[in-house]
Every structure is written in C-alpha cells, then in structure tokens.
Amino acid sequence: MLASPLAGRIALSIVAIVIAGTIAFALLNLKRGRVDPTEYAIGGRSFGTIFLWVLLAGEIYTAFTFLGAAGWVYLHGAAAYYIPAYGAIGYLVGYALLPRIRRLGAERGLVTAPDLLANYYRSPRLGVLAAILYVVLALPYVTLQLSGLQIVLSSAGYGWLNGTIGAAVAFTAIALFTFTAGLRGTAWASLVKDGLVLAVVLFAGVALPIHFFGSLGGMFAQLQRTNAALLTLPVGDAPLGQVWFITTVLFTGIGFYMGPHSIAATFSARSDNTLRRNAMLLPLYSIVLIVIFFAGYAALLLVPGLHGPAADRSFLLVIARYYPPWVMGFVAGAGALAALVPSSALILASAAIVVRNIVRPAFPGRIDERHETLAMRVAVIAISAAALLAWWLAPETLGSLLLVYYSGITQFLPGVVGAAFGLRLRGIAVTLGLAAGVVTAALLTYVLAHLGFNPGFGGLLVNLLVVAFVEWLAPKTKTSPPMANSSFEAPTTD
Predict the structure, then answer these.
(1) Do 329 and 153 form a contact (C-beta atoms < 8 A)?
(2) Does pLDDT of 490 surpass 60?
C-alpha cells in the first residue's frame, strides 16, 4: 500500500487506542487503598499462576521478540535459533531455582535481587555493588525496548511521524503509569499485551508465508535456492558459528532469570508450586517464538537488501507495503505494548533497587514505609529519564543490546545460586567474582569480540574461577549463614 498521511493517521490512531486502552484496563483493576513498598514493588507476594505467567513471559514477548528476532533471521539466518533454544534451558533452571528464591524472599522479607545477595552473604557492600550493576545493566535492556518502539511507531506513521518523538511520548506515558500502578498494574497490562502479541505473531508467521509463497514449504524452497547459507550455522568458531551458538545458548539459558525484574516477579509469587507450574507452562511461549522466524524469512525474500539496524523493521515493511493501514495499526499496537510493558517491569525493579539498596542504607532508620514507596515512585521517573537519555546517545541493533544485557546479568548466577541452595560461600568471594566476571565480559564484548564465542560465557568462567580461588585462599572457618530448612522442602500442593 502507498504511504500517505491518512494511512499514518489511521494506523497511529489504532496504536494510541491500544496503548491508552491497556493502561486504562490496568488502572481500573488495581486495588484501592494504601500501597506499601511490598505491594508496590512485588504485588504483596500474592500473584497466582496467570499473573506470574505473563510477568515471567515478559522475558520472551518483548520488542526483541517482535522485531529483533525477525531482524536476526533476516541478517543471520540460523544463528537466531539460539532464542528458543536458550528458553528451553532457562525453564529447566527456573523449575529448580525459582521456588527456593521465592521461599528465601518470603522468610527474610526480601524485595529486590540485591536484597537477596546482601542478606544471605551478610555483605552490605555486595548489596551496593549488585544494586549499581543491576541498574546500569537495565539501561541497555530498556534502550532495546525504546529502539523497538521507535521502529514500530515510525513504521506505523508511514514516514509521516518522527519515531523518536513518538517513542519518547509513549514511553513517558508508560513511566507515569508505572509511577501510579506498580507491579500489579504491570501484570494487568501484561495480560493484554501477551494476548495481542500472540495474535500478531501467529498472523505474521503463518499468514505471510502462505499468502506470498503458498505454504511454508514453498517459502523454504525459495530460500534454499536464493539464501541457502542462512539456513545453517557457520562451522566452528566463525562469527555467529557453532561455538558461538553453543556458548550463547548455555550462557543465556542459565542466566534467563537473573534479571532484577525476573527475581522481583519470583518474589511476587503466592507459592512455590505457582512457580513450578509456570516453568511447565512457559515453554508454550517458546513454541510460538519459532513462528516469528517465518516472518523474518518471508521479509528477506519480499524486501531484500536491508542491512544493520534496518533489518529490525523488515517484517513491518512487508505489512506497510502489502496490507491496509488498519492492519498495520494493530500490528504496531502489539509491538508498542511489547516494548512498553516489559520496560515498566524492569524500571520498577530498578527503582526498588535504587531505594532499598542504595538510598535506604545511606539514611539508616530515617525512611519509613510511606516515604520508601514515594521514593520508589520518584526513582521510576528518574530511571525512565536516564533510559531515554541513554537511548538517544547510544542506539544499537536490537540483538546486540540483548546480548550486552545478558552478558552482564548472568554474572550474578554464582551468588544467586549459592543463596538459593544454601552454599556457604563468603561475601568477598562472590563480590570479587562478580566484579571480575563483569569486567571480563565487557572486554570480550568490546575489545576481543573476534574470538568467536559468547563474551558473557567467558566472563562467567572467570567469575567462577575467582570465587573458587578466593574460597580456596580463605581461612577454613565459615561464617556464611545457612539457608532455612524450609527451603529444601519437597513440592507440595497449593
């Protein structure tokens, strides 16, 4: 379809209705009354299977899923298959790990991921370091969502809207929503987001190949003739080759739930079995992810010649060229929610971290619950502004931003696993290992990227070696607190 101001107005009006309707739906379903920090940040530890399902699925249905996965298939072909592969490992890890984290959080009144580390290892310094790293690492993830939002809105405007301004306005709206609604509001918004994204992904991945190539088989037959190299991984340690794929799948899978918003969602669970049921149900989301690859391959054949960040908009270009603007409106509305709602959860988790693990320790005994909740709301606005600034200064392709995020947050794995399973590690060992892992991952990402394996995986190996070395050097008497016995109870029925 030819671009026109009218087409842009139609599509953008639908996007605005989708965003506004989702916010209104979430706000209307909020509890009324006083909101304490636990209710605001982790929903009062009361979420059941449905809310927890959509919150934890926020790691899956994001702007990266919606655009970056298709863009990676467009540019790199089979290398994008790491996305559903790491999810399969992540759910196995989550089944064993998350119930223990939830129980420890409930027993000790924990709200944030740094709470977990500082409390278990009796190390305030570890808590502060973890807090700073978590907030810094949140910026690439939110920047990823903003980049996706910009692509969605500029595509929906058919060239007649400045996507940067549109994304800033929409992001400001979701920041104000998060300021008001907390995690419970984010969970209600996630219900709408996941339903709409699911419908659009199925449309894009199934309807496009059938409409243009007759069937999935017809599309892959044409790919075999024109782009056969993209259907297999490069051999050995070539860039994005087999070594990279294996290390990325293992590394990203085991770090799947290390994000601050994932641990906050874990603390929000009503029971251990709620988390176990989610670990069994979440693979259904990963099956749907495969469908978006079909949209990426279809876009490669229909709009060839895109390079770099332009590939992230490949599937939206197909929608804009071949479908009416109302279809683009619903597709872009789903894409906007896929960027905004996960951003809301991460910004909220980061705000709670800033207040509980940086501000409150600096003013011991001087911040009551009412002021703590207010401080979290203010931190939501401050972190949102910082994310907008980072996005304007350092835009990158969506796939690269996601890998930077995972390279950093997975360095928390030794400390989190040690706490969850009651390992008697010293706080100094975990602290030094975390610092060494993050520095190594950064060097491998920006200085030694040519080595051909996932940089975060190398950082995690160094992290584990440092933890082991410090434990070996330290005196044999151990003072780390043991885990409460209830953390080792067998699964029970709710």
Answers:
(1) no
(2) no
Residue 159 within a domain: yes
* Region label for 202, one of left (φ > 0), alpha (ψ between -120 and 50) or beta (otherwise): alpha
Indicate which CATH number applies to the domain containing 258. Answer: 1.20.1730.10
Written as one letter, the residue type at 283 is P
Q: How far apart are CA 482 and CA 448, in angstroms?
A: 40
Q: Is residue 118 part of a domain?
A: yes
Question: Which residue is listed with tokens 């409930």?
Answer: 106
pTM for the model: 0.88
Q: How many domains does the chain have?
A: 1
Let me know: does 22 contact 189? Beta carbons within 8 Å.
yes
State the burial class of residue 140 (Cβ atoms within 10 Å of its Cβ: 0-12, 13-18, 19+). Answer: buried
Q: Read off φ and ψ for residue 270, nearest 5 degrees.
A: -70, -35
pLDDT-based confidence at residue 493 (cuts at 50, 70, 90) = very low
Buried b (16+ CB within 10 A) or exposed e, 64-75: bbbbbbbbbbbb
User: What pLDDT digit, counting tens, does each position of 58-106 carry?
Assistant: 666 787 777 878 888 999 999 999 888 988 899 999 999 999 999 999 9
Please answer whether residues 347 and 209 qualify as being in contact, where contact means their C-beta atoms are separated by less than 8 angstroms.
Answer: no
- Identify the domain containing residue 388 by its residue range: 5-392
Asked whether 298 and 208 are in contact (CB, 8 A), the reply is yes
The helix/strand/coil state of 491 is coil
CA dihedral 126→130→132→133, nearest 10 degrees, is 130
Q: Is residue 51 part of a domain?
A: yes
What radius of gyration do the chain's Cα atoms show? 22
Q: Are 42 and 358 in contact (CB under 8 A)?
A: no
Residues 6+ apart with CB under 8 A from 70: 204, 292, 293, 295, 296, 299, 312, 314, 315
Q: CA-to-CA distance for 338 and 190, rounded, in angstroms?
A: 9
Phi-psi map region of 426: left, alpha, beta (phi>0 left; psi -120 to 50 alpha):
beta
Q: Is the Cβ–Cβ distance between 1 and 321 less than 8 Å?
A: yes
| 317, 1 Cβ separation under 8 angstroms | no
Residue 450: exposed, middle, or buried by beta-carbon count in 10 A (0-12, 13-18, 19+)?
Answer: exposed
Torsion sign across C-alpha atoms 201, 206, 211, 217? positive
374 domain-assigned: yes
Separation CA 343–CA 170 (nearest Å):
12
Strand partners, 301: none
Nearest to 375 by CA among 359, 389, 396: 359
